[in-house]
């Protein structure tokens, strides 16, 4: 029981530090490095680091792929509800087909469409934010002597 408690505390601390660092950099760089799906990514990166869903290529690839799908679907002359559904469905199909499944990224098309993002969102928020999360989690695992993703 005690080991589980310490593991949970370490996971929560790691996630809090990661989000705090992204928020701090957000202010210094005058760019938004935070988005809600990153909170869900922290669950995998810090609570289930050995999960294949927490592998760096899944985190980075899943977020980039799903956000790109949202941006592309946004260009289609379809009813908004259909854009939302198509964005999520295509993102999931592509993540699975390319073996880049990262469940939190499934929300990216919704985020893109609901907040009317444009292409700079991909390289100003999604790419640096996901990359930094992966790097922070790797460093934290090393310091806390936690297992790496399988």
Tell me what the structure shows.
By secondary structure, this protein is mostly helical. Helices cover 73% and strands 0% of the residues. The protein is built from 6 helices and no strands. Helix 2 runs parallel beside helix 6 and helix 4 runs antiparallel to helix 5. The longest helix has 28 residues. It is globular. The two termini are 25 Å apart.
User: Which geometry do the CA atoms define?
Assistant: globular
Taking all Cα atoms into account, the compactness measure Rg is 16 Å
Largest sheet: none
Oligomer: single chain
Low-confidence stretches: none
Number of strands: 0
Label the structural class: mainly alpha
Itemize the secondary structure elements and their pairings.
Elements: H1 2-29, H2 36-47, H3 56-74, H4 80-97, H5 108-114, H6 120-144
Helix pairs in contact: 1-2, 1-6, 2-6, 3-4, 3-5, 3-6, 4-5
Which terms would index this structure?
mainly alpha; 6 helices; 150 residues; globular
């Amino acid at each position: 029981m005690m080991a589980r408690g310490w593991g949970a505390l370490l996971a929560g601390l790691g996630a809090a530090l990661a989000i705090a660092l992204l928020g701090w950099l957000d202010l210094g760089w005058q760019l938004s490095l935070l988005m809600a799906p990153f909170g869900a990514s922290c669950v995998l990166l810090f609570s289930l680091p050995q999960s294949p869903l927490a592998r760096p290529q899944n985190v980075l690839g899943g977020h980039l792929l799903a956000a790109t799908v949202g941006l592309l679907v946004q260009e289609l002359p379809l009813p908004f509800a259909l854009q939302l559904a198509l964005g999520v469905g295509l993102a999931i199909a592509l993540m699975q087909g390319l073996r880049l499944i990262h469940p939190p990224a499934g929300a990216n098309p919704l985020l893109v469409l609901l907040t009317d993002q444009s292409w700079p969102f991909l390289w100003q928020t999604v790419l640096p934010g996901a990359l930094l999360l992966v790097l922070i989690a790797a460093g934290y695992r090393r310091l806390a002597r936690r297992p790496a993703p399988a």
